[in-house]
Amino acid sequence: MKRALLPIALFALLTYCLPLVSLLVPVLADGSFDQSAPAASGAEEEGRSPAAQFLLPSASGETQQPAGSAADSEVIRLWDAGSQQVLEVPLLEYLIGAAASEMPVTWPDEALKAQAIASHSYALYQRDHADADKLSGAWFSADPARRQGYMTREVLESYWGSAFEENWARLESLFTPILHQVLTYEGAPAAACYHAISNGQTEASENVWNEALPYLSGVDSTLDLTAEGYEQTVTYTTQQMYDAIVLAVPGAQPEQGKPESWFGEASTTAAGYVDTIECAGVFIRGTDLRTALGLRSACFSIQYADGVFSVTTKGYGHGVGLSQYGASAMALTGKSCADILAHYYPGTALETLG
């Protein structure tokens, strides 16, 4: 049974404390330092963007805009977090840069196409729900220089080096035929979220963003269990964990000398991600503890022994929507781009803007 969530003030405090908590460097079980633990709520593999950089889905009942026409989506307006400028990116160039920031260019054609359509759909969803007073009129933010969310042609030239022309040509040939294809739900662009690896089941959107979207209700993704990096264990010293709890959990009082008592029973969602967990006398959302500790996933377990906390995670990212590894694995079994999208976004329609 789900327990009551903490007051909304927790989120604000987590946001304030995150830069401090991120100074705590977890150590992998093999003794190496973790270079890829996601900040905030869901960075993907190194060199790929945080899937959780997406804006939160809009509140229920908000008027949705129609999918529009092809001409409406010829240019994507995004906020470059690095240069602090609005970029107006031609659609094909955006699809190439977005897909390249999310998936290795060597992955199967159908997976790359599914990623491109998901990125396009989400961009249009953001356009239809953007706050005109924020981001100087851009629909959403990305950081091309850090290869997060979108990479410009110039960044890709540096990133791919001598393979640039070949890679660009490959993606251009893949995406040109699907240039105006988008996922819609009830006639409007869908919030086609994505992440790197699920725990074997994708998460329902309401368990991450408190907003239920019918096509983000969670589906089976058992092929993810074969992904490299599916499971990871990081360790924290007692002092590191104490500091993290005190900074991030209002009202928590970790008892000195009894670290084994700091974490209690956890409740989980239907998909197996931590819903709430008792932390030093306070119940905290699993997604919030994930943020505080910089964990790869909200599917985690915590063990304490001999002065060390070991935290094991399964999956990578917020878990909502398309699993990028799962899409690749499905493509390798012969599934088409349309099959992949229909699986991860049930109830949506794949439409061509005209």
Automatic annotation (TrEMBL):
One of its GO terms (biological process) is sporulation resulting in formation of a cellular spore. Residues 83-155 form the Sporulation stage II protein D amidase enhancer LytB N-terminal domain. It comes from the Bacteria. NCBIfam families: SpoIID_LytB (TIGR02669), spore_II_D (TIGR02870). This is Stage II sporulation protein D.
